[in-house]
Amino acid sequence: MLTISKLRKIFCQKKFYPKKKLGQSFLIDGNIQKKILQSCELSRDDTILEIGAGLGQLTEDLTRKVKKAYAVEKDKVLSQWLRENLGSFKNLEIIERDILEFPLPFKTSPLNLKFKVIGNLPYYIATPILTRLIEDRRTIDSIYVTLQKELAQRIIAAPGGKEYSAFTVFVNYYTCPKILFPIKRTCFYPQPEVDSCFMKLEVLSNPRVKVKSEELFFYTVRSTFQKRRKTLLNSLAKGRLNLSKKTLLNILEEAQIEPQSRPEILSIMDFARLTQTIDRHIAHNGLL
To answer: Which sign does the torsion angle of CA 250, 280, 155, 103 carry?
Structure first.
């Protein structure tokens, strides 16, 4: 495990300075690293994709446990360090690339087996990375990530609270998320300004609810949360569905949803029922 003094020595040798704006922080707590390794439940048959391998504190232990490992690191200095220090591992491929530009899904084996994603996601870009992974989930079995505590709480939020959002609905539609354990900011160097959580997102074989049109489902979710202070009736009436308030009142009544409700009290099942009702009405009346 790299200590603060060892990290500083490496930084000096490589003329590397962690970039705060990129969220570059390095794990210095050996107990947390052990908990991460145990939580990922790795086997010799696994293929993994590590996001933000950094100086390889975790990469080496992960690589020893699996059949094949891909370590993606955007920073040129860090990726060079990985090649110099971990290049001898035959089952490790080091990729110097932005994860948002990495081609997913990619073929991981002759049988195209699903892989596990593991990483410490920079706070400023965690949401786009998770969105990308979930959208390209076809070859992903599960996602294990260190996230800012506030984001993790948003992901697992229940309807009715201020943390509950369109992103909550999106993540829970495709995955089963669970916070595994908290991580204090003091476990990293340089120390970030917030605490973190280690989280598992198990990719569901089928979405949590069944809808005819996912496009309509997510449009309804996003459009209502964008105007979360407005009632469902008013936010939907001002959207691109071109439905009158009278029609929407009938739709909401049929869906058993109070027109004066706001989006944060609707569960995923409620949104699915609302979407299906809108879809049936549009199809029946030939509006689209």
So the answer is: negative
